[in-house]
Amino acid sequence: MANLNRFDFNLLLALDTLLSERSVTRAADRLCVTQPALSGSLQRLRQHFDDPLLLRVGREMELTPKARALIEPVRTALLHINAALETQAIFDPGTSERTFRVAMSDYCVHVYLPKVVRILAARAPQLRLMIENVFGPSFSRLEGGDIDMVITHGDRSLFGREGRDVDLLTADLFTDSFVCVVARDHPIGETMTKDDYLSYPHALAFFGANVRTVEEAEIERRGIVIKELLHVPTFAGLLQMLPGTEMIATVQSKLAEQLADTDKVRVLRPPINLGTLQETLIWHNRSDDDPGHIWLRKVLKEAAAELG
User: Which of 14, 24, 47, 215 has a CA between 20 and 30 Å from the CA of residue 30?
Assistant: First the structure.
C-alpha cells in the first residue's frame, strides 16, 4: 500500500497512451497535452519503474521488455477504474445520455438494427448508439474497452479466435439461412445444381485476411473450390453487383428478402447445405453487472425476438 500512496494515478493514462503510441508526440496529441508536459510524465514514470520504458531505435521508439510487460496490466487497471466510475446503482433509460459502441456487420445493420433503434427511440431517446463494422480486430477492441459489444456469428474461429477470449460472455440472438442470388437473365434455370455452383464465378463479401464468412468456412470444410471473381466489403453490396453478369452471390435469407430487387435478380436455393447463421451478442465480463449494459442487452434480445 505504501507504493500506492506514493504513485500519482494520473500517470496511468499517460503510461497507457505512451505504451500504445510508442511516441511522445503522438501520445501528447491524443491526450491533448503539450509535448513537454508528457515528457515530464514519462520522466516520472521512468523514475518510478526504474526503467527507460521507451528507447530510440533509429527513427522509431521501441518499448523495453519492462514496458511490454506493463501493457496488459496497465490497460486492465484503467478499464476497471473506468468501469467503476461509470457504474451507477440505477440506470434510467428515459434520461440516460450514455454512449454505447457496438460492432456488427452491414447485414445486421439492414435486417436487425432498425428494430433496435425503434425500441431505443421509444424508451431511451437520449441514449447514443455508435455502430461500427465488425472485422478482425473487433474482439481486441472489445477486450481493450474501445467498444462495448460485438454482434456476429457465434463461431469465433471464423475470426481466428479459437481458444481465446476467455473473458467474453455470449448470448444467442437470432438465426438465418443462406440463399444464392443471380441476375434475372442468368443462364442458370429455376434450380441451381452443384455443377452450376462450381462452374460459374462468385462474388463474395470480404472482411480481411483473417476473417472468413460462414459460406467460406463451409466450402473449405467440404473441400470445394469455387471461382472467386469479386470481393466487396459488404453483404448488401453483393446484390448490386449481379445484374449484367453471370456471378453468383450467397447471402443471408433475411437480407435477400429485404434488399433483392426481383426485377433484376433471382433468389435460388443453394445446391449444398451452407449451414445456419447464428448471430450472437458478445460482451466482456467486466460489464456483466453494469446496469446500463444489462438494460441494453435486454433490448437487443427483445429486438432479436421480433425477427423470429
Answer: 47
Task: Give the number of domains in the chain.
Answer: 3
What are the Cα distances from residue 305, in Å, to 112, 115, 155, 279? 10, 10, 20, 12
CA atoms within 13 A on the CB side of 30: 15
DSSP secondary structure letter of residue 259: H
Q: How does pLDDT run across 279-305, given as a tens digit for each residue?
A: 999 999 888 989 999 999 999 999 999
Look up the pTM and report it. 0.75
In a domain, 92, yes or no: no
Rounded Cα distance between 251 and 178, Å, is: 6
At 84-100, the pLDDT tens digits run 666 656 789 999 999 99
Burial of 284 (0-12, 13-18, 19+ CB in 10 A): buried
Distance CA 255, CA 246 (A): 21
> Which own/partner pairs from 158-165 qualify as long-range (CB within 8 Å, at least 24 positions apart)?
158/211, 158/212, 158/213, 158/214, 158/217, 159/210, 159/211, 160/136, 160/210, 160/211, 164/139, 165/139
The Cα angle at residue 77 between residues 71 and 79, in degrees rounded to 5: 100
The SS3 assignment for 291 reads helix
Whether residues 149 and 186 share a domain: the answer is no
pLDDT tens digits along 65-78 = 888 888 888 887 77
Kindly state whether residue 64 falls inside one of the protein's structural domains.
Answer: yes
- Which domain, by its residues, includes 164? 99-175+278-307
Segment 194-198 long-range contacts (CB within 8 Å, at least 24 positions apart): 194/271, 194/272, 196/248, 196/271, 197/226, 197/248, 197/270, 197/271, 197/272, 198/224, 198/225, 198/226, 198/227
Phi, psi of 239 (to 5 degrees): -65, -25
Give, as one character, the DSSP assignment of residue 191: S
Radius of gyration of the chain (CA): 24
Band (pLDDT 50/70/90 cuts) for residue 155 is: confident
